[in-house]
Every structure is written in structure tokens, then in C-alpha cells.
Specification:
200 residues, alpha+beta, Ribosomal Protein L25, Chain P, RNA Polymerase Alpha Subunit, Chain A, domain 2, 2 domains, six-stranded mixed beta barrel, four-stranded mixed beta sheet, 4 helices
Length: 200
């Protein structure tokens, strides 16, 4: 999995006044969990743009004056009105410990049902997976080449060699729905057939 480096500085004061002062200075207060003790730090808002405002999943290398930590974003708080980042929690990665993270789905192939006039509906754009850090994928590939009209693709059909998908087996990833145009055409065809039958 690709990683993004975030340069920040450790902070000693963690009270409300200090946190407010940080935000006013264009900094985001953060906490890194998963080590011997939580690490409080801050970084400029711009440092997080490629980690937060993207549909892709990334790990983060947190660089605090030369001391680096590998981590994943665990939780993020936004301002309800301005959407400004208020606070971020990170979780430190360890080579021998599995972590759970949301991974985006990438659709592959052409569904016969779509070519026949159906519409592909993506029920889940991301799925939670559990794996060792070295086995975290950039994407989960969903092959739709076997989907006919009305068919569904379940998580059980997705590859899970180096990671485990943390969803029930009946979770639908995507499906081919009958489009309104196809439905209308089918209704009109049935109507025409009925009328032709009456004429006979």
C-alpha cells in the first residue's frame, strides 16, 4: 500500500486553550495510538490533503523532527459547518500485528447484464479488511464479467488470499439492476405480444 509522509511536531500542551491556538495557527491537533503511550503532535492542515481528501487508501509515515512512525488514519473529526479538520487519531503499525482498514473497491471486466441494457449499482465503495501491514492492498478488485441482468456479486466472490474481508458473507458488493428503459421495452414487448395474440 502507498504511504504519505506527514511532517509535524510533538506537542506538550494538550488542553483546550492550546488546541484552539493550534487550530487558529492552521495546525491540526493529532494523537498517535498503538505504541507504549499516546503521542500528541500537530501538523499543518495542508499536510493531510492527500491522505484525507482522496478515495484511495494510504498508510502514513509521521515524521516528528526525524523520529518516524508508520500509521493508519483511525478517526477524523470535521467542523459541522466549515468542514475544517478539527482532530485526527492515528494508529501505529507494527509488522507483526494485524490492523483493520477500509479499502476501496475497483471494478474489473464487463458485465453481460450491463451490455444487455442493465445498470451496474455499486452497493459498497469500500470494504473493511484485516491484514498485516505488509499485506494491505491498495484496492479490492471486483470482477463483474459474470454478472447477468439481476445478478449480485457477494463478498465471498472477492479475492482474500493475504487479507480477510470483515463483512458477512451475504454482503452485496454490486449488482446489475434492470434499467427503466429495459423494463419499459420489456413491458411494451409483452403488450405487443398480447395484442398480437388477441388478433389471432
Amino acid at each position: 500500500m502507498k504511504s504519505i509522509t506527514i511532517k509535524g511536531s510533538q506537542r506538550e500542551s494538550v488542553g483546550k486553550v492550546a488546541t484552539k491556538a493550534l487550530r487558529n495557527a492552521g495546525q491540526v491537533p493529532c494523537v498517535l495510538y498503538g505504541g507504549d503511550s499516546p503521542v500528541h503532535f500537530s501538523a499543518e492542515t495542508l499536510e493531510f490533503r492527500n491522505l484525507v481528501y482522496t478515495p484511495d487508501a494510504h498508510t502514513a509515515v509521521i515524521d516528528l523532527a526525524g523520529t518516524t512512525y508508520n500509521a493508519i488514519l483511525q478517526d477524523i473529526q470535521f467542523h459541522p459547518v466549515t468542514d475544517e479538520i478539527l482532530h485526527i487519531d492515528f494508529y501505529q503499525l507494527h509488522d507483526d500485528k494485524e490492523v483493520t482498514i477500509e479499502i476501496p473497491i475497483k471494478v474489473e471486466g464487463s458485465a453481460p447484464g450491463v451490455m444487455a441494457g442493465g445498470v451496474l449499482s455499486l452497493n459498497n465503495r469500500k470494504l473493511k479488511v484485516k491484514a498485516l501491514p505488509a499485506n494491505l492492498p491498495d484496492f479490492i478488485y471486483a470482477d463483474i464479467s459474470g454478472l447477468e441482468m439481476g445478478n449480485k456479486l457477494y463478498v465471498t466472490a472477492l479475492p482474500q488470499e493475504s487479507y480477510k474481508i470483515m463483512h458477512p458473507d451475504n454482503t452485496v458488493v454490486c449488482q446489475v439492476r434492470i434499467s427503466r428503459a429495459a423494463m419499459k421495452a420489456a413491458q411494451e414487448a409483452a403488450k405487443a405480444e398480447k395484442t398480437a395474440g388477441k388478433k389471432k
